[in-house]
């Protein structure tokens, strides 16, 4: 089977199956073998690894992953792509193809079944429209993960690793940095895909912490505060949190907590660091 990491072989397989791109699934297939090799290398995939690939498409990157990993779990939502994947991956016996929505799968069960519950590596070319829900599901389901290496919209990758005070800083930045150490490993131009997207992409690697960089009494409560803080960015923290309908969180309790932290009552969420949010969360729980 020929590698798919170029325009000619990709076009050939698409024509063979009369495949038409589904806009609702955000399908863009990579046609640059150098980038594919760099993603697999950047993800640190070895023969010891079980890899979860989200959105394999026609199997372009899956071929490279099957050669580098011990086992690959390829989860594809589009049922029209399953016969294509069965064809393009036919010579690899170290993979399973699952036709399912990643957000509806029990990832902990997958990890148990295919990797004995040990940490897996996620590698994905994520559809732009659903990047954040997928990343959040991977973190919040507490599935044993070693790392997530994902192709995302370039501005989303920048948002994931930015800090307080930036207009790109938000709930996603804080979540990614609470669970992992993010690092952009390469930028990828729109011309490397078929069909060509309207924006450039970046590959970001998120290496999961064994221990979170800040300790907090109630993780879920902290993230409810974080989401509320950025839902109305232009409002002060006192107003955005007291309007969010979170139990026990009022203008008075927020103002008291900020005073204890020696922060201005007119401060906005975008000025607080991860450690600040953890402290605020613990104070409000009291």
3D architecture notes:
This protein is 40% helix and 18% strand. It is α/β, with parallel strands linked by helices. The protein folds into 2 domains: 7-208, Rossmann fold, CATH 3.40.50; 219-285, rRNA adenine dimethylase, C-terminal domain (Helicase, Ruva Protein, domain 3, Orthogonal Bundle). The strands form 2 sheets. The protein has a 7-stranded mixed beta sheet, sandwiched between helices. Strands 1-8 form a two-stranded antiparallel sheet. Strand 2, helix 3 (60-68) and strand 3 form a beta-alpha-beta unit. Helix 6 (131-140) packs parallel to helix 8 and helix 9 (219-231) crosses helix 12. The longest helix has 13 residues, at 219-231. The radius of gyration is 21 Å and the shape is elongated. The model has no long low-confidence stretch (mean pLDDT 91).
> Count of DSSP E strands?
9
Question: What is the assembly state of the chains in this entry?
Answer: single chain
Radius of gyration: 21 Å
- Strand order, biggest sheet? 4-3-2-5-6-9-7
Principal-axes shape call: elongated
The largest sheet, given as strand count, sense and whether it forms a barrel, is: 7 strands, mixed
The CATH topology annotation of the largest domain reads as Rossmann fold
Name the average pLDDT: 91
Helix/sheet category: alpha/beta
User: Regarding CATH, which class of the largest domain?
Assistant: Alpha Beta
Strand content: 15-25%
Task: Spell out the helices and strands N to C.
Answer: HEHEHEHEHEHEHHEEEHHHH
Q: Which residues sit in consecutive blocks of at least 5 with pLDDT less than 50?
A: none
> How many DSSP helices?
12
The CATH superfamily of the largest domain is Vaccinia Virus protein VP39
Judging by the overall fold, what is the CATH architecture of the largest domain? 3-Layer(aba) Sandwich
Approximate helicity band: 25-40%
Query: What number of domains?
Result: 2
């Amino acid at each position: 089977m020929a590698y798919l990491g170029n325009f000619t072989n990709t076009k050939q397989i698409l024509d063979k199956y009369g495949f038409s791109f589904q806009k609702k699934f955000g399908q863009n297939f990579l046609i640059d073998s150098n980038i594919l090799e760099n993603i697999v290398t950047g993800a640190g995939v070895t023969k010891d690894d079980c890899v979860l690939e989200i959105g394999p498409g026609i199997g372009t990157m899956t071929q490279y992953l099957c050669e580098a990993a011990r086992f690959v779990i390829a989860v594809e939502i589009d049922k029209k792509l399953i016969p294509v994947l069965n064809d393009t991956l036919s010579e690899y016996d170290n993979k399973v193809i699952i036709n399912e929505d990643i957000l509806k799968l029990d990832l902990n069960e997958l990890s148990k079944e295919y990797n004995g519950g040990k940490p897996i590596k996620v590698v994905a070319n994520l559809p732009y429209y659903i990047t954040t829900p997928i990343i959040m599901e991977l973190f919040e389901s507490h599935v044993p993960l070693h790392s997530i290496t994902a192709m995302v919209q370039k501005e989303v990758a920048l948002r994931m690793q930015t800090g307080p005070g930036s207009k790109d800083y938000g709930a996603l930045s804080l979540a990614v940095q609470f669970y992992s150490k993010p690092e952009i490993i390469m930028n990828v131009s729109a011309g490397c895909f078929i069909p060509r997207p309207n924006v450039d992409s970046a590959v970001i690697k998120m290496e999961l912490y064994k221990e979170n960089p800040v300790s907090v009494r109630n993780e879920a409560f902290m993230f409810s505060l974080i989401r509320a803080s950025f839902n109305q960015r232009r409002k002060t923290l006192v107003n955005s949190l007291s309007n969010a309908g979170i139990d026990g969180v009022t203008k008075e309790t927020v103002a008291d907590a900020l005073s204890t932290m020696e922060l201005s009552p007119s401060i906005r969420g975008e000025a607080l660091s991860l450690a600040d949010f953890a402290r605020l969360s613990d104070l409000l729980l009291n």
